[in-house]
Write a structure and sequence with these properties.
membrane, mainly alpha, two-stranded antiparallel sheet, transmembrane helix, elongated, transmembrane, 3% strand, 182 residues, 7 helices
């Protein structure tokens, strides 16, 4: 079904090539924005506080989710795909929550972070991080939709290396009790 494009680790049919490239681009943007948020958080000197540690940890998990997304598409393993979907949903929810906290209660959020930076400068840095959190929130949901589409197309085309081992439905039915075998 379509022309196949062979790369070093996977085969992608021509109609899905652009979806794959957009998926990878979104993951790379996620990597860049999460690492930028980590640097902005470090510029606020947030490490002494527990909230600052969790703020940085959220972005580390976002980076891990983006890397697992690139691996899931390239390698085709169900484990990587499941890990990517779970991590992306959780980080998407938390990124949206953090961005709402940053923009609705900037001074209270900055006080909870126990930053040593002046409040005016800290508010600007925190709002920059909040803008990146909104970007990551939107991109994570785009990545989820694209990952689902890529997995669905791989399943429909019958690519057994990407759909979980290549068992057919008939092989599964042989192991069922007699009344369920049709």
């Amino acid at each position: 079904m379509g022309v196949s494009i062979h790369s070093s680790s996977c085969t992608i049919s021509q109609p899905h090539y652009h979806i794959h490239k957009i998926f990878l681009l979104c993951n790379y943007i996620l990597l860049g924005s999460a690492s930028s948020c980590i640097f902005l958080a470090l510029s606020l000197r947030l490490l002494p506080s527990v909230a600052g540690f969790f703020f940085i940890l959220l972005h580390i998990i976002t980076i891990t989710s983006a890397v697992s997304g690139c691996t899931a598409v390239s390698g085709g393993s169900n484990k990587w795909y499941a890990a990517h979907m779970v991590a992306t949903v959780l980080t998407g929810i938390f990124q949206g929550s953090v961005s709402i906290l940053i923009f609705s209660t900037t001074s209270n959020f900055l006080a909870a972070l126990k930053s040593y930076v002046r409040e005016e400068d800290g508010a600007v840095i925190l709002k920059l991080a909040g803008g990146l959190c909104i970007l990551m929130f939107c991109l994570e949901w785009v990545v989820l939709v694209l990952a689902f589409k890529l997995r669905y197309y791989a399943f429909v085309e019958g690519d057994s290396s990407r759909t979980g081992g290549g068992k057919t439905q008939e092989e599964d039915l042989k192991n069922w009790p007699w009344p369920f075998q049709v």
